[in-house]
Amino acid sequence: MINSINGKRFRAYTVLFAMALFFIIFSSINAQGPSDNNAAQRDVINQVSLLQGLTFGDYNGSIPAARLKELGDTGIGTFDALNGELIMLEGIVYRAAFDGTIEVVADEETIPFSNVTFFDIDEKFQISGIDNVNALKDMLDKKVSQTGDNRFYMVKIEGVFNTMQVRSELPQTKPYKPLAVVLETDQTFFDYENIAGTVVGLYCPAYMSDLNAVGWHFHFISDDRQSGGHVLNLSAEDIDVSLDRSDYFAMVLPDNEMFNNFDLTIDQSEDIKKVETGED
Ligand SMILES: [Zn+2]
To answer: Which residue in 25, 35, 129, 139 has a CA-CA distance of 20 to 30 Å to 195?
Structure first.
């Protein structure tokens, strides 16, 4: 009799315990679900088209600036007809135009190529004594090696730059020429000294060589929002670096005839190098 009562009590407690456990697990899944989703959405490097499409001469904008802002708040790229260098900072899309000046871009303007993400700082540090852009790349490479060469990174570099050499390019008319050809004649260069501003940079891992430029790609905008462009060289004493590591990558493919008919099996690595560094 006593045993039977104890047995019933035991079963009742077991059922209660199981219900409580189920409730705790279920509510924690519920609580984590949406926030995990949100974190994943923010942790994506979104890419519009392939850099290789751009180097072939596909300057046809495929998504409007308004849509790009839904994919990130920080990034780099270019505009329809290759109308200047794109830099996105704190959710604002800027153009560094062919004359080196900066303007805020209208939501309707379309974009043929870009990389953006929602910038969440994973690591912040200071680096000093940067003599040129390759020294900066080396220092950042060392940092990246600690957390993984095969991940994506967006970087924000803030400070006063002793020297800053940027380029932009003249807007193009159809039929579009390949980018390497355009840059031979229509590239514009600007040199600044002691200029305060932000460099936004993207790091692509080696396996991205058919989709983008491997390694670092930097764009610059001055604090006074007057000057900027694609960074060719720079130097600085002390700069603040914020690093955002991304575990997801997504692409938006353009839907136009030019893109659809490219032979993307052709190796363009030499052209990509020329386009990125401004060197032959
Ligand atoms: Zn660029």
So the answer is: 139
